[in-house]
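Fold it.
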Amino acid sequence: MSYVGGHVPPHHHQAALPVRWRVPVQSHDDWAVLRIFRTPSGERTAVAFTSEALLAEVLGDGQASTTLSESRLRELIAPLGISLITVNPTLTVPQRDLRNRGAQSAQAAHRRPRRFDHDHVAA
């Protein structure tokens, strides 16, 4: 069963060896933070790529990543209340850049508490 280009159900079972995916992260000194995205409908999702080349094609050559199995990725996103994994998304919309807004809008946005900075993805 192939999930390339789509979403992986949270409880699917495969008899094959565990799949290893390239997963985008934000690097900070000696540690990394998993990047969380949103689907076009607004649902939070982890994204994974079946190759480094596909990750670079969608998110750019400079995107940091790590290799994770599906089970490990699910362990990381479960405490965040996320069960959706999008594999090989083909379209992304860049994060909103507050520098492109007026100074007042940027200051107001920084005063609002935010838990995550999300990107948007589509399968």
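Residues 7-122 form one domain.
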